Amino acid sequence: MAWIHSASSYLAISQLLFLACLYLVYFPGKRLAHLIALFCFCCTAYILSRQPELDLPGMDTVLGMIAVMAPAVLWVIARYMFEDNPHIHKGIWILIVSYLLLRAVGLWLYDGSQMRGSLFFLMFFNIPQLIMMLLACHVVYMASRGRDSDLVELRRQLRMPFAVGMGSIVGLIIGSGFLMLGSPQLDSLYFFVIFLLILFINLGMFQIHKDTPQLIHMAGELPAPGLTTAHQSRSNVQLQNDPTVSASPVSRQDQLLIDRVLKAMQQKRLYAEPGLTIGDLAVKVSVQEYRLRKLINQSLHYRNFNQFLNQYRIEEAARRLKDVHEFHIPISSIALDVGYASLSSFNKAFKDTYQVTPSVYRSEQSE
Question: CA 332 from chain center: how many Å?
Fold first, then answer.
C-alpha cells in the first residue's frame, strides 16, 4: 500500500505545481494569479505534511501552518473572482489572522499529551477548524449567490465548478484535521481526489484559455460601472454611469436592441419592479436571455445585472431626494418605490455611488 500512497501524493503535487506555474507564467504580476499559486502551495504543504517519510524536526509544524492557510486563501480568491467590489472588511482580516495565530500556537505547543476534549484542543484546534469551515462554506455561498445576475459569461460558467472543486479540496483538508481521520488508506484517497480535481481544472484551463485572461485581468482590478471611489468626482460618476455610453463599436442590429432595452427601462420604469431578473427583462423586451446578457456586458460594460438596475434606481432616488417638493416623503418610501426590497440594500447601493448615506445626501441638498 505504500506505493499507492506515494503515487497518489506525487500525482496530486505534480498537478498543483503545474497549475501554480501556469498562472504565474501566463499572468505575471496579477493578484489573482498569485493567490491561486499560493493556494496550490498550501495544498502541496498539506500533502507533504501527511508523508511519514518526511520526519524532519519542526517540518510538520511549518507545513501544517502553510496548509491551514488554504481556506483563507481560497476565500480571498473567491472574493476577488466573483465579487465586483472585492474590498475586504478589516474584521475579516482580523478573523483570518486570529485563527492562523491560534493554529500556529497550537501546533507549536502540541506534544501529543493533550486530550481531544481538553480546553487546549478547543482553543487551538477546534475553534480554528470551525472558522476554516465557515470560510469554506462562505466560498460556496459567494460562488453560487450571484450566478443568475452575473453578466460575465465565463465567470458565470466557472462559479459552480469552482465552488464544488475548490470547496471539496478544502473540505478534505479541514475534515481530515477536524475529525482526526488519518491513515495511509484515507490519505491516498484524499490525494487521489485532489489529483482528479486539479487535473480537471488544468484541462479546463486549456479549454477556456482564450477567455481566461479577461477574467484574470479584471478580477479585483477594475471598479464596477455602477460604483465609484472616494477619489472620483461626482461628474465622473455621472459619466461613468450613463447607460447610453458605449466604449466599443457595436453592430447596427445590436444597437437597435440596446436602444429598445434602454427605452423600455426608462419609459416603462421596469427597474422599479422589485425582484426584476434578467430573465424577466428579456421576456419584456422580446430578446433571448443569453443575448441580453452579452449586450449589457459587452456593449454597456456592466458585469452584474444588479449594477445595471442600480444605476437607474439610484439616479431616480437621488433626483427625488433633492427635490424640495418631496422632502416630506420618507426615505424608505422612496427606496421601495424605485425597486429596492429593503432600506438597508438601498442605503448600501446609494453610499457606494455617492459616498454618503441617503439621509446625509438629502440634508446636504436641503442646506
Answer: 30
